[in-house]
Amino acid sequence: MKKSKVGHLIIAFLLAWLLAQFFFYSVTCTATELPPQLTISRTQYLELKNIINEQESLLTQLEEKLQTLEQTSPELLKTLSEQKALLTKTQERLRNAETLLALSKIEQEKLNQSLQTLSEQIKKQKDVSRRRERQKAFWCVVGGVVVGLSAK
């Protein structure tokens, strides 16, 4: 009987070892499960592939633009500050020009008033001059009549 007990023990031990291997094997299999598969038609696959390629191309272009912008950013900032300074100078010049324009309008109004006053004075002087000429002519006639009457 000893032989059969030893045989049974060996068989039991092998079965236990086999069950343990099976149990640990299934645990290791679940740890490395394959991802679930998705089945799509060929046209959908090609369309998806085209979209991915377009997205990659767009991403590449955007990365290039970003690199370009990062490289030119200091230059653009310098140009921007120069343009701001130029804008400030131009605005100051514009304010000065507006001030000069307002002053010149005031001066023009003064000159127009002076011109009007001068024109009125010239007109009055012409009137006085005409009146003196008439008076002179009148006194010449009167003098001629007096001389003519006294000569008779």
Describe the structure.
- With 152 residues, this protein is an all-alpha fold.
- It is built from two helices and no strands.
- The longest helix has 109 residues, at 42-150.
Number of helices: 2
**Rg on CA atoms, Å:** 59 Å
Distance between the termini: 205 Å
Gross morphology is rod-shaped
Class by SSE composition? mainly alpha
**Low-confidence sequence ranges:** none
Q: Give the total of beta strands.
A: 0
Order of helices and strands: HH
Kindly estimate the percentage of residues that lie in beta strands according to DSSP: under 5%
**Sheet having the most strands:** none
Share of helical residues:
over 70%
Please tell me the overall pLDDT.
84
Would you summarize the structure shown here?
The chain is built from two helices and no strands.
Write out key terms for the chains shown:
152 residues; 2 helices; 91% helix
Summarize the SSE layout with pairings.
Layout: H1 2-31, H2 42-150
